[in-house]
Write a structure and sequence with these properties.
This protein is mainly beta and 443 residues long. It has a domain at 46-68 and 321-443: Lipocalin. Helices cover 4% and strands 42% of the residues. The protein has two helices and 34 strands. The protein has helices at 11-21, 162-166, and strands at residues 3-5, 41-42, 59-61, 72-74, 77-85, 91-98, 104-113, 131-133, 136-140, 145-150, 156-161, 188-190, 193-196, 206-209, 215-218, 232-236, 239-245, 250-254, 260-264, 278-280, 283-288, 293-302, 305-314, 324-327, 330-335, 343-348, 354-358, 365-370, 373-378, 383-388, 396-401, 420-422, 425-430, 433-438. The protein has a five-stranded antiparallel β-sheet, with no helix packed on it. Strand 33 and strand 34 form a beta hairpin. It is globular and about 60 Å long. Residues 95-356 form the Pyrrolo-quinoline quinone repeat domain.
Amino acid sequence: MRLFQRPSGAATFLVTTLILMTAATQAADWPQWQGPNRNSISAETGLRSTFPEDFKPVWSFKDCGIGYSAPAVVNDYAYLLGADKQENGDYTEFVLALDPSGKQLWKQEVAHYKEGIMLTKWGHGPRSTPSIADGRLFGLGANGDLFALDQKTGKLLWKANLREAYGSMLSGARGKPENTWGYCESPLVDGNHVICTPGGEQGSVVALDIATGKLVWQSKELTDPCSYSSTVIADFGGVKQYVVLTAKQLAGVRAADGKLLWTAEVPVNEVAVIPTPIVTGNRVYTTCDYDAGCGLVEVKQDGDQFTAKVLYKNKTMSNHHGGVVLIDGKIYGWTGKTTSRGRWVCQDLETGESVWMEGRAAPAGAVMAADGHLYCFTQDDGVLVCIEATPKGFKETGRFTIPQRTEKQSILGKVWARPVISNGRLYLRDQDLLFCYDIKQDS
């Protein structure tokens, strides 16, 4: 593996940089997929919800490579995955580290693969968002390469391919075991373990030692193919569990040893199961598109046993992959695969019924929440639309468009990287382009 190091400046600058990067994670950091709690909600306040007509980024970086990886941000340092196409048609995947001014700190190659490994017109490149913990960075490439890097230097610490090491089976189009769109899961770091779902007959979920990458356990009772969803942590009845949405069902495995504790038949499809489940209390909400719908599951403990009861299934929400958020008992997100066939929805979590729908004011896109607002990044044209997070209706407060669209689009290219807010900054990616905006109210 090759490491591309940015030419160093003064020695004092380098020392200061390393000190800043090893500082304790700030409350406003966004160190992993969907933020600190994996729920796409930032606890920050004092953020802009309106924007001037000429709203400009404080910096932009235009060599991120192709891919849909959103940045993980710690102490204003941004980390993301990308890929470059070589002259022979092969692809090289890498991780980028950018300093608070948007300058490249390091670039580490992590994987190589040939064109055509993914049966898709949506473009090659990584989909996974890295996780930052304990001075390490963990990521998953589009061809199933799971790896750990040193956060400060980019040095490769360990690497394993999910198919070769754990018998991974990735569900493809129409339920076929093929790498249709590439591995998309974002690894979960929990204590001394990194959790990933390779899927397959050897066991759907694995826990690896974060320092060595060695296998700690594999959940052999759960053998579903993996989906494109990411794992979340839950505590049901005082038992820590990992909740996974596979290609076939929702499941909970014990964090201590991977034992399968419960399963539930929630709406899934034979194409792509993508959104991350939402855990709230002893309930789990799931959704996926291709007209599958959504569901709410209640998990209960009876002695050493767990049961999972499906409270409802309906099609009020069929989210493709822009995600949904839960705020004050209401689910917000886009239902439907395209702008022409969908709408923004506010759904009551308890009943599953629609509170409001809006299909004309803003196109389809991804969503995250902060400071009482929803920040929606549209997939067709790269517009950031800000609306109030309220059950009273769709109330837009402001919008702006990223200043440039990528020239590295796939044939069917979309803006699919999730928006990220960290320490008063908003990060928006379109393939090789990353824009950083200051959205503090006093800026």
